[in-house]
Amino acid sequence: MQNSLDYFSQKDIQITNTVSKDTEKSVLYIHQAGYFSSETCPSSKRFQLDSFFFLYVVSGKGIVEYDGSIYNASAGQCLFLNCCNPHSYRSDPEDPWEVMWLRFNGTSAQYYYSLFTREKCCVFIPNNPQSIKIILSQIINNNTHKTENTEIINAKLLTDLLTSIVTGYCIYKECSDKSKYKIFSVRDYLDKHFTDAINLDDLAERFYISKFYLTREFKKEFGITIIRYILNKRMEYAKELLTFTDKTVEEISEICGFNDQSYFSRQFKKSENETCMSYRKNNKSINSQAP
Predict the structure, then answer these.
(1) Same domain, yes or no, for 145 and 59?
(2) How many domains does the chain have?
(3) Whether residue 197 sits in one domain with residue 70
(4) How much is the pLDDT for 168?
(5) pLDDT value at position 178?
């Protein structure tokens, strides 16, 4: 069965709604919603619109200017803006973004936005991006195939979306400035991609940040170098695989991102003070005795 994002990728979608006066006075409602592919995503520059804007970056990167500040957004990140404030956004020409978005308003919209801005930057990574994509897909589908229940379903889906954003707590809740935000963005990226081939130059380019600043601030924030952070993540994953699977040391080495099994084995022994096979034997024995 074709999933919703596969469907959207076949064509751009832009929906504009005219809502009833009763809806405007009573519930959250959709002004516009849609999907833009990386080939056709337009730029926008606006202000003093009585509405709110939400965008999810499916892939690629973009640049956002909001209320006098500039932010970078990449795959898996979201924007949440008050359109009364000056704002613009555009796709990165080197890595164009693919986005799902909506513009909305309603009786409780300002309340949700106020709760959001107490804790978070306008560009953020949600704790559960999959649920955000699902809700946005449902909103787009609901407004693509309108029925007499479209407006009330919109209200329900918007409430679900905003509740998820406000109560789900973004990973970067603790970030109070853009520079620190980027460092936490790097950490989250490493948490998801630690088995990939990663180097400092690529990280610096991905997050639009100096390599030297990145290495200094990461160590300052987390008390560990980036290389050691990646290595620790790989070792933890290797221990899981040794304990709970029957994969060979060679297979585990490759899965964890090592090109050289001998190097992996040396690093494992240095980290755990025992060989991979010794660790497996000891921990499988412990787990086999567990109730």
Answers:
(1) yes
(2) 3
(3) no
(4) 66
(5) 58
Instruction: State the Cα–Cα distance between residues 213 and 51, nearest whole angstrom.
Output: 37
Assess whether 273 and 138 both reside in one domain.
no
For CA atoms 233, 235, 238, 242, the dihedral sign is negative
Is residue 172 in some structural domain? Answer: no
For residue 115, the enclosing domain spans: 4-167
pLDDT at 221: 85
Q: What is the DSSP string of the chain?
A: ---HHHHHTTS-EEEE----HHHHHHS-EEEEEEEE-TTTPPPEEE---SSEEEEEEEESEEEEEETTEEEEEETT-EEEEETTS-EEEEE-SSSB-EEEEEEEE-TTHHHHHHHHHHH--SEE--S-HHHHHHHHHHHHHHHHS--TTHHHHHHHHHHHHHHHHHHS--TTTT--SHHHHHHHHHHHHHHHHTTS---HHHHHHHTT--HHHHHHHHHHHHSS-HHHHHHHHHHHHHHHHHHH----HHHHHHHTT-S-HHHHHHHHHHHHSS-HHHHHHHHHHHHHT--
Averages of pLDDT over each 10 residues, the chain, 291 residues: 47 82 91 83 66 92 81 87 87 89 93 79 81 92 91 95 79 50 83 92 84 88 92 94 93 95 95 93 62 42
Q: Dig out the tokens for 38 from the structure.
A: 């990386």
| pLDDT score for 142 | 92
Contact 102, 32 (CB under 8 A): yes
| Residue 78's CATH number | 2.60.120.280
Overall pTM > 0.70: no
